[in-house]
Design goal:
The protein is of the alpha/beta class and about 450 residues long. It has 12 helices and 13 strands. The longest helix has about 30 residues. The two termini are about 20 Å apart.
Length: about 450
């Protein structure tokens, strides 16, 4: 009898161990998925580009039509599953769903680690870039954690009761989708890329080793040849510029990110028929850069707004430049179709996509520093006719930090209110005095 009592006491003494381990695993696994989903939701354009890279690498070109939808759905699902894991909701279903996801991601990331077909998986967007082997190791650890939860998760109650768990899922999904909406139609609410607002743009010509960054393709008598920037042929000799292609720099070369007047600076290579015109574009006092990363996909319907914005900026003494990733033939066709009254130059599409999200996008640069950026479609036409609004203040109606703060404040308050409403009766029950047990004759034991 005494032995049985001692065993029970020992069991009670260590009864906290399993629930504590379960909660720790819930928080760790859930936080990884929530962070992964949030990072992708903040920058849906980046997710869209990465998903396109995947389908093209795998030869699944037919899936390109759904990559934009995936850029919204995948982050929302990941974030929602992560939050549900952290609060212990749907204790049996959620670990099973996470395990199914990992059964897909494990072989995929192992293939990436071995083949290096894609430089990084994009699991955390641009917020945290991991090597392919680090990503595979992370997924192995996650899978072990999920298996642990699959076995023991049901033994420990969650934070929210079963009746309101669907509301937790709905609120989390809504938050991720609203964040993605702002990131796609205006700009990401947090900028994880090199060209943040406040970054100084410097001429590409000042970059060490620039002659090895691009090869320029010229044609003569039906023959095409590649030249470095120092050996570009004279067009009077019959050579015609065709295109240029980037060449990966040696990792031992100096980084393109430098310090300049205590401001982070990043070189932006800009070309006109193969000639570096970065100085010409970036040295003027104020510039409005119209970016077309994929000029062939830009709707002609944007033409009116582009021309109106150009006239609006030029009246204020702001130079307007179009910068796109296209051949000289494509640039000429765009000029003819849109009757563009601004010079158009070329730059690498990856640089344009890092500089600002959107196709087209607008970037305002003053004294060489990025002041604001947003998609063209997010600029209200009425503001161009408001005499109190200048190019410098055109973006004052959009405060990304304030928007993100309000979204998380509302989300946090709603989650807290839901918890209080759902669990108040439990708290009250613990506070009320317990009834003492009575025997069959009505006497208190």
């Amino acid at each position: 009898m005494r032995s049985s009592s001692m065993t029970k006491e020992k069991e009670n003494k260590y009864a906290w161990v399993v629930p504590t381990m379960v909660w720790l695993m819930r928080i760790v696994v859930g936080a990884v998925f929530a962070f992964s989903g949030l990072a992708k939701a903040i920058d849906p354009w980046g997710s869209f580009y990465k998903f396109n890279e995947y389908v093209l690498t795998l030869g699944w070109d037919s899936l390109q039509g759904v990559t934009l939808v995936a850029a919204f759905v995948v982050p929302a699902v990941e974030f929602t599953l992560g939050v549900l894991t952290m609060v212990g909701a749907y204790r049996r279903v959620i670990p099973a769903l996470l395990l199914l996801m990992m059964l897909v991601m494990l072989p995929l990331t192992l293939w990436l680690a071995v083949s290096d077909a894609v430089p990084d998986c994009g699991c955390f967007g641009d917020a945290l870039v991991l090597s392919n082997w680090a990503t595979f190791g992370k997924n192995v650890a996650l899978t072990l954690g999920i298996v642990f939860l699959l076995i023991l998760n049901r033994q420990t109650p969650g934070l929210y009761g079963p009746i309101v768990q669907w509301l937790v899922a709905a609120l989390s999904c809504a938050l991720a989708l609203v964040i993605a909406y702002h990131g796609y139609f205006t700009q990401p609410l947090v900028d994880f890329r090199p060209y943040k607002v406040g970054t100084r743009l410097t001429a590409a010509a000042s970059r060490p080793g620039q002659d090895s960054d691009y090869l320029f393709i010229y044609a003569k008598d039906g023959e095409e040849r590649e030249f470095t920037i120092d050996s570009i042929p004279d067009e009077e000799d019959g050579w015609t510029f065709v295109d240029r292609r980037p060449v990966k720099r040696d990792k031992s070369q100096e980084s393109s990110v430098v310090a300049f007047d205590n401001v982070i600076a990043h070189q932006l290579p800009i070309f006109n028929e193969g000639v570096d015109v970065s100085d010409e574009v970036l040295m003027s006092k104020n510039q409005l850069l119209l970016l077309f990363p994929d000029v062939q996909d830009v709707s002609i319907a944007h033409t009116f707004m582009i021309n109106e914005l150009t006239e609006y900026a030029q009246k204020q003494g702001v130079d307007v430049y179009g910068i796109c990733s296209a051949s000289e033939k494509q640039i000429a066709e765009w000029k003819d179709i849109t009757m563009a009254e601004y010079p158009i130059f070329s730059a690498d599409d990856s640089e344009l996509k890092m500089l600002a999200r959107g196709n087209p996008a607008v970037v305002y640069v003053s004294d060489g520093v990025v002041r604001w950026k947003r998609t063209l479609g997010s600029i209200e036409d009425d503001r161009l006719h408001d005499t109190n609004v200048t190019v410098a203040t055109l973006n004052d109606d959009y405060d990304a930090g304030a928007i993100l703060g309000r979204l998380f404040s509302v989300y946090g308050l709603l989650m807290l209110a839901l918890l209080l409403v759902n669990r108040t009766h439990v708290v009250i029950g613990h506070l009320l005095p317990k009834k003492k047990p009575v025997d069959e004759d009505g006497y208190i034991d």
